[in-house]
């Protein structure tokens, strides 16, 4: 199975949930849920299983990110990119920014 | 031996008071519960001696306890009020028909005259029929608008000065939050008033304004009051549901939050330059309204013309699109034409909708 | 009874999936950000964002009596909103270097690291603002206990509340400021109260610092998302009376220091994206409810509620902010009726209101828990100066101090004080609180003196 190499960044406090790492490069399977290509939805649940260090409820709500967490895909608002249905491409640059005070 | 009541220091404490967290005995709880309602009535000068008061009775916990407490305080403090029960029959099978049975039992227990006024009698539509037409989305709009008018019309028939409703502190706090959330500045200002009087309309007040819902249930439970406890089968929309959940969460974080929200609401003042709708009178039915036609008339027109969305959202635009109402559509009888039921000899007024229909038809 | 009176349909406000892929403004470039229901390209987004800031500062400038050349202070927490604000102020002020709007800009940060036993935030913050070359003031929250953080500049007496709720005024004890603040906040287990205290101590400290540095204006970075959360949380905490002052774009409540909130029209989403594009790195500063569950405090719960609702109904924040903007400070607000803790106005008679609707005693019983109970409950006929619990013994000094203190609080601070459960020794409130109590006492004394000799006076108070 082929791999996708993507860049993940965290800021606004959300990095605390990811071992205080602000930026990381990861390789994820191009099809986490075969036969479909890997989507944002797959990525988020993959991050929960593989990267998240603590308190999943502060990162996720249902199968998406918690309200108040911004997501940019290649400098573009993910709400314009299809949100959970967006298909991840090799080289994507994905940023998670928390706008919340309470964590 | 359990711990003693923090007020009297004699009896065993059996409850933790939701409003304050104090541990109280039964009698002291009754005392503070009733006294706070008495204070609200006295401090706001709600009634005069000799007033005729209709208690809006749905058979639910709030209105059942209200009827009980009104009768009790009226006797204890000699308010000198003449009390009536006034019920609205929205026509919801499996909900209102059952709860009206409770009201009829209350009528006998408290020996208060009862008047029931129904949607189908007044508007020609029951809620069951309305829901069939409009679905479950906006049905609460119809019910809320229709109920308000129905109560006022019932009050005119009973020739009372004043209607008291069972709205409690939780309801009012929730309404304050709702009005902020939907930006309804006019209602935000009005919703914490304990007593409202429209032009030519009957005074309406909320003696339970500062009374916690939980304490009403507690009171009814210990006093073994008979009430109907099923939620309406046509539940409210999701937005209000969010506000309600939030309020319950707030209360669990800090029990005084409900009173604190009402305190805030009472302090709100609106900038002078903000335009508020001016109150006038509906030209069709004579009910108070800030538009040419009151909401009830517009909603009814929509129902009768098969355009149930007419009164939802932007009324003006919808009416423009669909034009004026044809002449032959049924309307609500004009307010001035309601006959007062002043048959003093027949003190107990039971559901006499047929009788009323004739009276309304007489013109 | 069903409490629904009328529901307006909210159909229009429900989240929608955008269909156009182009910017609504220039109509040509590809849209990359969705703000409520509008899509923008990067350039137009930045233009609109900066425009909102400029509109607000220009409005406050035209209303200001200082014109150009005002010395201002920027309250800088290090969070995204204040980070963006500092950048915007800088761009705005340096746009025409020889015609600067503000003669001097001071950046002030208050370090709260003591609360969470973490290392100081000051070095990081100082580093992140260094490039602007503005004077930087880094303060520690505990230093609000210094005798010079007062109106008079030197007041070394404090209010103490002991385990048995005895309230007294004492000479400033010898513990260090850090010990006093830790002890205060450790005794407050209720996080709603803790957040309130921290916020108002910070605000008082900022105002005092601005004043002593000759700044006539304090910029605070509250954005519209934050303000709408505040509108709901202040309402929920019984602060409706002061809400318009605490959430408006501008207020002169502190007289010589005007508070301006130039970020009031931007959503936190806009700020997050602006900072990302501009490469502005914010400093993440934890607060006492960070990483906690939603019911940790009223503030935290409200944030969860509003942010969640905004996701489903993207007009939530703007509707709340608009509602808040239509509220105005009451005509009955009096400058001298300032709560000694939060410095916000209090309503006359709010204590009587509370005692009428929350009855805590019965007439025949003398309460067993004594006069000095911090649960500031009293009988219906209490007049100011009487004992808090309604026993009319004003002869002893302790109950005098107790009553004076209780009378100098706003409704919400009284609720806060009630929720403090002192478990460890005693709590000490900063000197500015004691100074406020004494100032109020003096004013009342003067009023009474005046009443006494009124018929012999030929002129009004102001003429003297």
UniProtKB/TrEMBL annotation, chain A:
<comment type="function">
    <text>Acts as a sulfur carrier required for 2-thiolation of mcm(5)S(2)U at tRNA wobble positions of cytosolic tRNA(Lys), tRNA(Glu) and tRNA(Gln). Serves as sulfur donor in tRNA 2-thiolation reaction by being thiocarboxylated (-COSH) at its C-terminus by the MOCS3 homolog UBA4. The sulfur is then transferred to tRNA to form 2-thiolation of mcm(5)S(2)U. Prior mcm(5) tRNA modification by the elongator complex is required for 2-thiolation. Also acts as a ubiquitin-like protein (UBL) that is covalently conjugated via an isopeptide bond to lysine residues of target proteins such as AHP1.</text>
</comment>
<dbReference type="InterPro" id="IPR015221">
    <property type="entry name" value="Urm1"/>
</dbReference>
<feature type="modified residue" description="1-thioglycine">
    <location>
        <position position="103"/>
    </location>
</feature>
<dbReference type="Pfam" id="PF09138">
    <property type="entry name" value="Urm1"/>
</dbReference>
<dbReference type="InterPro" id="IPR012675">
    <property type="entry name" value="Beta-grasp_dom_sf"/>
</dbReference>
<keyword id="KW-1017">Isopeptide bond</keyword>
<keyword id="KW-0833">Ubl conjugation pathway</keyword>
<dbReference type="GO" id="GO:0034227">
    <property type="term" value="P:tRNA thio-modification"/>
</dbReference>
<dbReference type="InterPro" id="IPR016155">
    <property type="entry name" value="Mopterin_synth/thiamin_S_b"/>
</dbReference>
<dbReference type="GO" id="GO:0002098">
    <property type="term" value="P:tRNA wobble uridine modification"/>
</dbReference>
<keyword id="KW-0963">Cytoplasm</keyword>
<protein>
    <recommendedName>
        <fullName>Ubiquitin-related modifier 1</fullName>
    </recommendedName>
</protein>
<dbReference type="GO" id="GO:0032447">
    <property type="term" value="P:protein urmylation"/>
</dbReference>
<keyword id="KW-0819">tRNA processing</keyword>
<feature type="cross-link" description="Glycyl lysine isopeptide (Gly-Lys) (interchain with K-? in acceptor proteins)">
    <location>
        <position position="103"/>
    </location>
</feature>
Automatic annotation (TrEMBL), chain B:
<dbReference type="Pfam" id="PF01171">
    <property type="entry name" value="ATP_bind_3"/>
</dbReference>
<dbReference type="InterPro" id="IPR020554">
    <property type="entry name" value="UPF0021_CS"/>
</dbReference>
<comment type="pathway">
    <text>tRNA modification; 5-methoxycarbonylmethyl-2-thiouridine-tRNA biosynthesis.</text>
</comment>
<keyword id="KW-0547">Nucleotide-binding</keyword>
<dbReference type="GO" id="GO:0005739">
    <property type="term" value="C:mitochondrion"/>
</dbReference>
<feature type="domain" description="Cytoplasmic tRNA 2-thiolation protein 1 C-terminal">
    <location>
        <begin position="281"/>
        <end position="310"/>
    </location>
</feature>
<dbReference type="InterPro" id="IPR011063">
    <property type="entry name" value="TilS/TtcA_N"/>
</dbReference>
<dbReference type="InterPro" id="IPR000541">
    <property type="entry name" value="Ncs6/Tuc1/Ctu1"/>
</dbReference>
<feature type="binding site">
    <location>
        <position position="88"/>
    </location>
    <ligand>
        <name>ATP</name>
    </ligand>
</feature>
<comment type="function">
    <text>Plays a central role in 2-thiolation of mcm(5)S(2)U at tRNA wobble positions of tRNA(Lys), tRNA(Glu) and tRNA(Gln). Directly binds tRNAs and probably acts by catalyzing adenylation of tRNAs, an intermediate required for 2-thiolation. It is unclear whether it acts as a sulfurtransferase that transfers sulfur from thiocarboxylated URM1 onto the uridine of tRNAs at wobble position. Prior mcm(5) tRNA modification by the elongator complex is required for 2-thiolation. May also be involved in protein urmylation.</text>
</comment>
<dbReference type="GO" id="GO:0032447">
    <property type="term" value="P:protein urmylation"/>
</dbReference>
<keyword id="KW-0067">ATP-binding</keyword>
<dbReference type="GO" id="GO:0002144">
    <property type="term" value="C:cytosolic tRNA wobble base thiouridylase complex"/>
</dbReference>
<dbReference type="GO" id="GO:0000049">
    <property type="term" value="F:tRNA binding"/>
</dbReference>
<dbReference type="GO" id="GO:0016779">
    <property type="term" value="F:nucleotidyltransferase activity"/>
</dbReference>
Automatic annotation (TrEMBL), chain C:
<dbReference type="InterPro" id="IPR019407">
    <property type="entry name" value="CTU2"/>
</dbReference>
<dbReference type="GO" id="GO:0002143">
    <property type="term" value="P:tRNA wobble position uridine thiolation"/>
</dbReference>
<dbReference type="Pfam" id="PF10288">
    <property type="entry name" value="CTU2"/>
</dbReference>
<dbReference type="GO" id="GO:0005829">
    <property type="term" value="C:cytosol"/>
</dbReference>
<keyword id="KW-0819">tRNA processing</keyword>
<comment type="function">
    <text>Plays a central role in 2-thiolation of mcm(5)S(2)U at tRNA wobble positions of tRNA(Lys), tRNA(Glu) and tRNA(Gln). May act by forming a heterodimer with NCS6 that ligates sulfur from thiocarboxylated URM1 onto the uridine of tRNAs at wobble position. Prior mcm(5) tRNA modification by the elongator complex is required for 2-thiolation. May also be involved in protein urmylation.</text>
</comment>
<comment type="pathway">
    <text>tRNA modification; 5-methoxycarbonylmethyl-2-thiouridine-tRNA biosynthesis.</text>
</comment>
<protein>
    <recommendedName>
        <fullName>Cytoplasmic tRNA 2-thiolation protein 2</fullName>
    </recommendedName>
</protein>
<dbReference type="GO" id="GO:0016779">
    <property type="term" value="F:nucleotidyltransferase activity"/>
</dbReference>
<dbReference type="GO" id="GO:0032447">
    <property type="term" value="P:protein urmylation"/>
</dbReference>
<dbReference type="GO" id="GO:0016783">
    <property type="term" value="F:sulfurtransferase activity"/>
</dbReference>
<dbReference type="InterPro" id="IPR014729">
    <property type="entry name" value="Rossmann-like_a/b/a_fold"/>
</dbReference>
<keyword id="KW-0963">Cytoplasm</keyword>
<dbReference type="GO" id="GO:0000049">
    <property type="term" value="F:tRNA binding"/>
</dbReference>
<comment type="similarity">
    <text>Belongs to the CTU2/NCS2 family.</text>
</comment>
